[in-house]
Write a structure and sequence with these properties.
about 15% strand, alpha/beta, seven-stranded mixed β-sheet, SAM-dependent methyltransferase, Rossmann fold, 7 helices, about 40% helix
Length: about 230
């Protein structure tokens, strides 16, 4: 089945958030980074402005900036309403209220939209859908990231996640996945199945991070080449 924009709910995050949710140090930011499922995040734009090397991967990048802008307009109020109806499921510290959440997300997504067409032409935004193989050679990157995609959508199943993580490990020496909760804010059985599968050939561990918006969502999964 072809990927359709109406299947997506675009929701963008900033470089500052990426630093917190992936525990990215200044040394990490100087690495060659590939980031999967970035959506309309401003991460790539902000990193590029600092002369850092980032490639963002997402199937929504097959659409135009105007298409993405329209989809954001169609879905943002729905996301904010759902969040407002579930306030107790979130930690309101770094983001203090719904209004600040809306400002933060819209600012990140507008920054992305301003950068998108130029970034796509220069190869910083690549249309690609996991678990299909990317065009990159083995170990082309130092670090691969997955924000709010793998593990979160546990319903995609073990084989999807196994193949997706395998491809990420093919192109990068280390991968970091955040969060490690599913859409019900629980650690899925899938997480433990993946750890058991990959720890035979890779260094695998869970690490706490300085980020928690979804309650209990303050850990990432790290896999490294031995």
């Amino acid at each position: 089945m072809p990927f359709e924009l109406k299947q997506t709910v675009p929701w963008g995050r900033t470089l500052a958030e990426y630093k917190s949710l992936f525990s990215l140090t200044e040394s990490d930011l100087d690495k060659r980074i590939i980031s999967f499922g970035d959506g309309p995040a401003s991460f790539n734009k902000e990193m590029t402005a600092q002369n850092k090397q980032v490639v963002s991967i997402d199937p929504i990048y097959r659409f135009s900036a105007s298409d993405l802008r329209q989809r954001i307009a169609e879905t943002k109020d729905v996301v904010l309403k759902q969040t407002r109806n579930n306030l107790d499921n979130f930690v309101w510290t770094k983001i203090r209220n719904i209004d600040e959440l809306e400002r933060t997300r819209l600012s990140a997504m507008n920054d992305f939209l301003e950068d998108f067409e130029n970034g796509r032409k220069s190869g910083r935004y690549i249309n690609h859908e996991l678990p299909n193989q990317t065009v990159f050679e083995d170990q082309s990157f130092d670090l691969a990231l997955s924000s709010h995609f793998l593990i979160l959508y546990a319903q995609l199943g073990f084989e999807f996640h196994r193949a997706s993580i395998t491809e990420m490990l093919r192109v990068a020496r280390e991968i970091r996945i955040f969060p490690i909760l599913d859409l019900d804010a629980q650690k899925p059985a899938l997480l433990h199945e993946l750890i058991h599968h990959f720890e035979k050939d890779f260094l695998v561990h869970i690490e706490k991070v300085d980020y928690e918006f979804q309650k209990g969502g303050n850990e990432m999964l790290i896999l490294k080449q031995k």
